[in-house]
Design brief:
Layout lengths: L2 E3 L6 E3 L1 E4 L9 H13 L4 E3 L15 H13 L6 E6 L16 H15 L4 E6 L26 H13 L3 E7 L3 H14 L4 E7 L10 H9 L2 E5 L10 H4 L7 H4 L9 H16 L4 H10 L4 E6 L4 H9 L7 H13 L6
Parallel strand pairs: 3-4, 3-10, 4-5, 5-6, 6-7, 7-8, 8-9, 9-10
Antiparallel strand pairs: 1-2
């Protein structure tokens, strides 16, 4: 395994992070336990969860993923071996079963306390805001369109003050953002600098071979401001395994169970994936491992969040950390990217 630290901290994390959002829906508790056991054995010390999980989110399975992790901690005693990240859900129609008061003081304290109970721990290493409260282009929306009727009011300073209180209580160690844009990221960083408030150390956004939007304005922000990317969906919902093109996807495959997650299933996504698969095959590696190795090696990357529904998938995905792509492969990848840029943002 390769390791780094959360930016501007001494918290050592593996370059591969274990994603967990299928546990409690596509995966059982026993399967989640097996994945955590394997990941830890392979040197993965960084686990990412959210109160929202599993996904798709609904009231019946709400927070089951955190409960599974908490039960594993309780059973194995491995809490001290894991850097644990979780998130508070933002507002939205599909999170109304959680709460409706956004990132208010009451919401933050309630969310942290409830997560700690489910996770059977007294602290969370990295606590993240799952997505912005304001209306902006997230979750596959390519461009920003301003809504003059957005009722959101600037509360960056207030959020950081409330997070500061929770940090001082010892319940969380560091804070981060997720599904955020350049403007929101810089506003958080500005408030922390000017007012000596907690600093967002990571940003968790989508990033993959078919969604390199982060390389625009966010890559510069990430590198210059030292706020590390935690890349989610590096396999684009499994599309970049090639299994949907080859017709080998099992009945438990994400896009078979939940076809509404179609942002990586367009004609351009399929064509780009075919070309990337040809590059991988020409160099005697799987498309999955090439896709993950590319993500892990980016200069703005802190950790690559990989998820799997089977142990075999998980093992292959973790082992991708040992692959270094040649200049020839990177050139071929960038040629495809130039012809079909970001087909699935």
């Amino acid at each position: 395994m390769k390791y780094t630290t959360l930016p501007k901290t001494d918290i050592k994390v593996s370059k591969i992070c274990l994603g967990t959002m299928t546990w409690g829906n596509q995966n059982t508790q026993d399967e989640g336990f097996a994945q955590m056991d394997l990941a830890l054995d392979k040197g993965v010390n960084f686990f990412d969860v959210a109160e929202l999980y599993p996904v798709p989110a609904n009231a019946e399975t709400y927070a089951e993923t955190e409960r599974i992790i908490g039960n594993w901690f309780n059973t194995t005693g491995n809490r001290d071996k894991v850097v644990l990240a979780s998130k508070i859900a933002g507002t939205g129609d599909y999170t109304a079963h959680i709460r409706t008061n956004g990132f208010s003081k009451e919401a933050l304290h309630e969310a942290v306390n409830n997560s700690l109970k489910r996770l059977k721990t007294d602290y969370i290493d990295l606590y993240q805001l799952h997505w912005p409260e304001r209306e902006t282009n997230t979750f596959g929306v390519r461009d920003y369109t301003h809504n003059p009727n957005d009722k959101w009011e600037d509360n960056f300073n207030e959020i950081l003050h409330n997070l500061d209180d929770i940090i001082k209580s010892g319940k969380i160690r560091q804070v981060g953002i997720s599904n955020e844009k350049a403007w929101g990221t810089m506003r958080y960083l500005e408030e922390s600098k000017i007012n000596d408030l907690p600093r967002m150390v990571t940003i968790q956004n989508a990033y993959s071979l078919i969604n390199r939007v982060f390389e625009g304005d966010m890559a510069e922000v990430s590198i210059r401001e030292e706020i590390g990317l935690l890349a989610y969906s590096p396999m684009a919902f499994g599309v970049l395994s090639g299994k949907y093109i080859k017709g080998t996807a099992g009945d438990n495959a994400r896009l078979k169970l939940f076809p509404r997650f179609a942002r990586y299933s367009s004609e351009n996504c399929t064509e780009a994936t075919k070309r990337y698969m040809k590059i991988a095959e020409d160099h005697n590696m799987s498309l999955a491992q090439m896709s993950l190795a590319f993500v892990t090696d980016r200069p703005f990357m802190t950790s690559n969040i990989i998820g799997a529904t089977s142990i075999a998938q998980l093992e292959e995905n973790i082992d991708s950390v040992n692959i270094t792509l040649s200049d020839e492969i990177l050139k071929a990848i960038n040629e495809v990217h130039a012809e079909i840029p970001n087909p699935g943002p």
